[in-house]
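Q: EHD3 protein, please. Structure only.
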Amino acid sequence: MFSWLGTDDRRRKDPEVFQTVSEGLKKLYKTKLLPLEEHYKFHEFHSPALEDADFDNKPMVLLVGQYSTGKTTFIRYLLEQDFPGMRIGPEPTTDSFIAVMQGDVEGVVPGNALVVDPKKPFRKLNAFGNAFLNRFVCAQLPNPVLESISVIDTPGILSGEKQRISRGYDFAAVLEWFAERVDRIILLFDAHKLDISDEFSEVIKALKNHEDKMRVVLNKADQIETQQLMRVYGALMWSLGKIVNTPEVIRVYIGSFWSHPLLIPDNRKLFEAEEQDLFRDIQSLPRNAALRKLNDLIKRARLAKVHAYIISSLKKEMPSVFGKDNKKKELINNLGDIYARIEREHQISPGDFPNLRKMQDQLQAQDFSKFQPLKSKLLETVEDMLANDIAQLMVLVRQEESQRPTQMVKGGAFEGTLHGPFGHGYGEGAGEGIDDAEWVVARDKPMYDEIFYTLSPVDGKITGANAKKEMVRSKLPNTVLGKIWKLADIDKDGMLDDEEFALANHLIKVKLEGHELPNELPSHLLPPSKRKVTE
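A: Structure for EHD3 protein:
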């Protein structure tokens, strides 16, 4: 009897069962979070409702920067081919948002057609009106890079009030919409013009709450000398520190991202290392896409909860008949106090609350009498989702990652340095002598032999204790010397002969020159007399 009484409790305790992360995210959003958002008009204040395409789309990279910082050239460099609608020049050339995506045939899809395509994640951009849609296109082309990611090119940011007004749409709001949905935001700066205009400053502030997605590229760095580059880098970090209010320093990649010769090649090795780091970061996006979408859903759920508390508090304070307008003004002016009360009553972090000034502006146009009172069941459902269902999805994310082959961005510039002598670090450090017929260690072996014979070898070998006395003179940590010992003691007898000792000293030299040690000894470093043993 009354068995139905326990059904709801049982359902709350047992998390949902999902087959895939994407399916789970869609179902959780539609059944648990969306009802709360709709009940408290979340979409009118913060962000439009999510659609299936938002959960299914490939990882996206958003490029933002002032005009002529090399945004379009950067995309051209990654793809290693032109894309439809591409225009490059020193003047402000890209005047549109261009979504560069995979397609079987090259072509351009205009914005108005793009926002009615249910397979593309852009339908909610319809809210920004024709002024924006006339400046939004999708460039489609077959390219191996675009099989894994999509790239969003943006208009160059200008300075001055006039340019901002003449756009005809809220530029910062559009960028904020994209920032919520992309996996990586790359801010490009030109090493020659670091000034951050008013509009750029406003844009960076609009990207607040997405600092974890942001990376900075200091482009065209080959056009200035090393000493100037140090000053420019310092000035950039100082400027960013004033705008991006985070204790962590945003990662800055220095380089020249185009296919022309370096003007000043002094920092070539630095540029190569920075490029590889940036490429690795971009290549990791497909692998981490599901985790990013899960993280964004959690952030959205926390904001929706806080929004529900704010709207229901305002509803509760409103009089039922007289004095509504005066009370509305009073509540908007005292919104900071309402924030503080909600924070205390519900133990909510201050960082979860929406921007106070922006919220006050938005509330001016709202009819408070149409707000809904607090509905505990909706909030409990979202709490249950965060406490139980999300934990199950986290396990599923890890399972999907382990079952799939390594997902990485391939093709274009990502392939250029993978194989052959132009790979990063090829022929350097432990790779030195990789193509030589002679054993590379033999060059310095006479010097190492002199030391070897002072260490009292017995039957042509020295003990570990005697080898240690010499090796610690390098002042390298024991952990590093222990790794060198394992690599050099090829026959694993706990002693070193003259070739093994020479190899150990060569590896010490490699480490002291600032290179990383290999996890396994490369075949070209094997001493000639040991090659038959290992084969």
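A: Brief note, in case it's useful. Confidence is low (pLDDT under 50) at residues 1-12.
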